[in-house]
């Protein structure tokens, strides 16, 4: 039996397209009276960042920048009616971080923007939305944030 969504995770990297995903997630969280958890990945060092070949996502070094993204994301979500909002930062690639946040919170729904899914690197190396859709054990919604 399908239950309502109680915990919804959305990822942001501070970009305009990720804010569209936050907006959609906020509206869904408001509709289900769910807890919205806004997550952001960060790399702990320049070395970690350069190890990942992915150019389709914003590279965030250190958790200070991640925290700033989350504050902006939280304000954005509130403006679209979400009331129960938590934030989470996690080291690693965007995919690793989102999976860690989903699992730690036992989330029912993960929402990501579609950025990178149609790019050449996205097709060759995988993209954040495609990878989380494969790895996630909860529902994944891919929001059309980039044409």
From TrEMBL:
Q: Which Gene3D superfamilies match?
A: HUPs
- Enumerate the SUPFAM superfamilies for this protein: Adenine nucleotide alpha hydrolases-like
What are the UspA domain coordinates in residue numbering?
5-144
Family per UniProt? Answer: Belongs to the universal stress protein A family.
Report what the protein is called. Answer: Universal stress protein
Q: What is the phylogenetic placement of the source species in the record?
A: Bacteria, Bacillati, Actinomycetota, Actinomycetes, Mycobacteriales
């Amino acid at each position: 039996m399908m239950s309502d969504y109680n915990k919804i995770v959305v990822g942001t990297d501070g970009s305009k397209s990720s804010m569209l995903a936050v907006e959609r997630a906020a509206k869904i969280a408001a509709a289900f009276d769910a807890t919205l958890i806004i997550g952001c990945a960060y790399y702990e060092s320049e070395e970690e960042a350069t190890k990942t070949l992915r150019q389709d996502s914003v590279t965030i070094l250190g958790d200070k920048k991640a925290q700033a993204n989350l504050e902006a994301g939280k304000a954005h979500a509130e403006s679209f009616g979400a009331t129960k909002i938590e934030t989470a930062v996690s080291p690693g690639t965007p995919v690793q971080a989102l999976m860690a946040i989903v699992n730690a919170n036992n989330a029912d729904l993960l929402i990501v923007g579609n950025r990178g899914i149609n790019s050449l690197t996205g097709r060759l190396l995988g993209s954040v939305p495609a990878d989380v859709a494969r790895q996630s054990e909860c529902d994944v919604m891919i929001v059309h944030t980039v044409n």
